[in-house]
Write a structure and sequence with these properties.
2 helices; alpha+beta; disordered C terminus; 8 strands; about 180 residues; Peptide Deformylase; 5-stranded antiparallel sheet; 3-stranded antiparallel sheet
């Protein structure tokens, strides 16, 4: 796992540089980013979140078996606008309401250097916008609907062992 950069780390506000060649070190970075994202239970990760100023993002939706890899990604078209809840691995413990596109078309290269174009909606569109924002030094807190639309997350409760037969069960949080 790679160390996660956390706000106010200045690298998160820097614009990442285009990748000019795809070699072994980039492949290792991609593999490490995927592992780091999965270990952190994230949906996406941009290279500058792990301290590398290169235009690389990885995204893995809950229903996807394999992660998406985008090198030098760009949004080429946006449609509509919606308000969605977001969080970020670089801003742990907080969530907020932001404006994102309903649909996006994006392009970039896959990990083998092949041109990729994707039309995305819902979570994939949101993740693409969020991660490409990272590469431009923009954080989701810069896109809040309003300042009062940022809140601290409730800490997750640790799962408890099931009670033995006959023991009382306490009411707890669900979901």
């Amino acid at each position: 796992m790679l160390p996660m950069r956390i706000v106010p780390d200045p690298i998160l506000r820097q614009k990442a540089k285009r990748v000019s060649s795809i070699g072994g070190s980039l492949q290792r970075l991609i593999d490490d980013m995927i592992e780091t994202m999965q270990e952190a239970n994230g949906v996406g990760l941009a290279a500058n979140q792990v301290g590398v100023l290169q235009r690389v993002v990885v995204i893995q939706l809950p229903e996807d078996e394999e992660p998406w890899v985008f090198i030098n990604p760009e949004i080429i078209r946006r449609e509509g606008e919606r308000e969605v809840e977001e969080g970020c691995l670089s801003i742990p413990g907080y969530r907020g309401m932001v404006r994102r596109s309903v649909k996006v078309r994006a392009k970039g290269l896959d990990r083998n250097g092949k041109q990729v174009r994707v039309s995305a909606e819902e979570l994939l569109a949101q993740a693409l916008e969020h991660e490409i924002d990272h590469l431009d030094g923009t954080l989701y807190i810069d896109r809040l609907v309003s300042r009062d639309q940022l809140w601290k997350e409730e800490p997750r409760e640790e799962p408890q062992e099931a009670p033995a037969d006959g023991e009382p069960v306490e009411a707890g949080r669900t979901g």
